[in-house]
Specification:
The complex is a heterodimer of chains A (119) and B (109).
Chain A (H helix, E strand, L loop, with lengths): L1 E5 L2 E3 L5 E8 L8 E6 L5 E7 L8 E3 L7 E6 L4 E6 L8 E8 L5 E4 L3 E5 L2
Parallel strand pairs in A: 2-11
Antiparallel strand pairs in A: 1-3, 3-8, 4-5, 4-9, 5-6, 7-8, 9-10, 9-11
Chain B lengths: L3 E3 L2 E4 L4 E8 L11 E5 L6 E5 L3 E2 L7 E6 L2 E7 L7 E8 L4 E3 L3 E5 L1
Chain lengths: 119, 109
């Protein structure tokens, strides 16, 4: 299993950014996926998940980001996305994508991509 | 807002045993919360250790074990090694959302 995040960078407050997670080594279309972030020097924060299309393809979000962040997927190119809008300085963090295992577990993680929100 | 609480820090001697716990502001943690445990070392992504309370991955060292203890999820390290010095996080399932604990910094000294 390999997960490679990209798309991080510096963005101004109020701006938008779309992160990608390229997946390989497993059948992506069958996988539930999630995004987790970690502000520098802080703990982990679960952001949201997306189910496989065969399980409905729906998404769930943590309350702090619901309405601003959207998780989506393109199974044709084995890629997970995180669209982030109305970014705040508090959104500065490393963003990780993960796979779900069989027990609501986040079993495989990417190396993360850094998003910095600054003016 | 749901809060998941872990000990901020613990210290253990090499070869010793230590138990980290994970509590929920909603009440007792049960197997229905599907407790997960993760290890994170500086500069690295987190690594999954335990899922569904006590299940291990193929890469999880035998000295790590998960359980429920006194209404909390627990991670026990038996025969601690110097390389176990790290931050440990639990993750609980609340249906539409999942919530991480604040993490426990484990020092091996």
């Amino acid at each position: 299993v390999k997960l490679v995040e990209s798309g991080g960078g510096i963005v101004k407050p109020g701006g938008s950014l779309k992160l990608s997670c390229a997946a390989s080594g497993f059948i992506f279309s069958n996988a539930w996926m999630s995004w987790v972030r970690q502000a520098p020097g802080k703990g982990l924060e679960w952001l949201g998940r997306i189910k496989s299309k065969s399980d409905g393809g729906t998404s769930d979000y943590a309350a702090p980001v619901e309405g601003r962040f959207t998780v989506s997927r393109d199974d044709s190119i084995n890629t997970l996305y995180l669209q982030m809008n109305s970014l705040k300085m508090d959104d500065t963090a490393f963003y990780y994508c993960t796979t779900y295992g069989s027990g609501w577990d986040l079993n495989y993680w990417g190396q993360g991509t850094l998003v910095t929100v600054a003016s | 807002q749901t809060v998941v609480t872990q000990e901020p820090s613990l210290t253990v001697s090499p070869g010793g045993t230590v138990t980290l716990t994970c509590a929920s502001s909603t009440g007792a943690v049960t197997s229905s919360y599907y407790p997960n445990w993760f290890q994170q070392k500086p500069g690295q992504a987190p690594r999954a250790l335990i899922y569904s309370t006590s299940n291990k991955y193929s890469w999880t060292p035998a000295r790590f074990s998960g359980s429920l203890l006194g209404g909390k999820a627990a991670l026990t390290l038996s025969g601690v090694q110097p390389e176990d010095e790290a931050e440990y996080y639990c993750l609980l399932y609340y249906g539409a959302a999942q919530v991480f604990g604040g993490g426990t910094r484990l020092t091996v000294l």
